[in-house]
Amino acid sequence: MLPVLLRPLRRLLSQLRGSGSQPRGCLRTVDLRSDTVSQPGPAMRAAIAAARVGDDVYGEDPTVNELQRQAAELFGMEDALFVPSGTMGNLISVMCHCRERGAELIVGDQAHIHLYEQGGVAQIAGIHSRVVKNLPDGTFDLNEVESKIRQHFPDSHYPRTGVICLENTHNEAGGRVLPLSFLQEVRTLADKYQLPVHVDGARLMNAAVALGVKASEILRFCDSVSMCLSKGLGAPVGSLIGGRKEFVDQAVRVRKVLGGGMRQAGLLAAAGLLSITDMVDRLQDDHRNARTFAQGVQTFASSLCDINIDAVETNILMLAVNDPRMSPEEFCDKMAEVTEDEITVMGHGVRVLMNPVYGRTVRAVWHVDVSEEDTELALQKLQYVIQKVNQK
User: Fold this and answer.
1) Is 176:137 a contact under the CB 8 Å cutoff?
2) Residue 49 confidence (pLDDT)
3) Are 32 and 353 in contact (CB under 8 A)?
């Protein structure tokens, strides 16, 4: 059985190395599948190794406590909580806003909470989602939102709206940043109906860097936030929830019942501390590299790919494979494979990893492990793929 399982690995090694035992020429992998694939660097590994720890369930881990203190300051909120993942952070936040089973949240139809978190708000918390249509920039029509707010309590026919959920930056919209003016309008509407606003801020710091403002300037319109440390900020694990003190106190209880209570979590929190202090400003490098690649697509790959360069605001790029000779899956396969011909023609081989996401769309995401040089290599690989497609 084992030899059968090893065959795909052997084929891959053979593809990368050619017929000899060593690769023929320089091989490079540029992994653009997600910013979650980044590796902790030497400084982060050193911080993890040196972390002071304690039992966080007892509130005794000094590194976790310091991370939460600094996060609350970063958010401009009263308190913060370290949790294992962004999915858990969103679920905890929704559960804390919607205390009764059968409550309802309002969320965009392209939101991560709605599409990619296994319907956890319904499956685990008994909370109903009412969706509104996301516009191409990640916002939505507030008239539609208002029409779907249901507060007919105690009428037994209706669920009661408990929270409005936003996403910033917006993943499915291609990393778009929600305008501050839109956030203000949402806040005004929420206040009218005495509703809280939660933001899935998985890439909140990308939004802050793109707008040139502090995170607290964005979050002043929101009651709670869940922010990932393991995406653009480069930590290996973890997310942060922010909100009022009583909200976070409740979040601690919900985290525990979901299995998110961690013990000597300072090893992970040490990486998170480095993320929010040393890894924020460099996000502009990811934004710049993503835009460089987008400009290259626009310049020489328009026969194969469509791209809206004005929509490339942060580290995420969405391109549409518009050539009928190639599906998005085939495009990703061609970008990822390394052939003898490529090494002969280019003098090196480059594996560029991307993901087809929906329809004819492919997503590419820049992060700390993708340099300016890597971006140029990815563009060279794209040119090579286009040349081969055109030759056919």
Assistant:
1) yes
2) 97
3) yes
d(CA 121, CA 100): 12
Close Cβ partners of 15 (under 8 Å, ≥ 6 residues apart): 337, 338, 339
Tokens encoding 143:
């008239």
Which segments of the chain have a pLDDT < 70? Answer: 1-25, 153
Q: What is the pLDDT of residue 5?
A: 39
Alpha helices (H) in the chain, listed in sequence order: 2-17, 42-50, 62-75, 86-97, 112-115, 120-123, 142-148, 180-192, 204-211, 215-219, 245-257, 266-278, 283-300, 328-336, 340-346, 372-391
C-alpha pair distances (Å), 218 with each of 77, 88, 183, 237: 12, 22, 8, 24
Question: Is the peptide bond between 188 and the residue preceding it cis, with omega within 30 degrees of 0?
Answer: no
Alpha-carbon distance 306 to 187, whole Å? 35
Asked if residues 166 and 183 have their Cβ atoms less than 8 Å apart, the reply is yes
pLDDT score of 11: 44
DSSP 99: -
Question: What's the pLDDT tens digit per position in 36-55?
Answer: 999 999 999 999 999 999 99
Region at 126 (left for phi over 0; alpha for psi -120 to 50; beta for the rest): left
Alpha carbons 122 and 24: distance in angstroms, whole number: 53
Q: Give the Cα separation of 153 and 130 in Å (integer).
A: 17
The whole-angstrom separation of Cα 251 and Cα 244 is 10
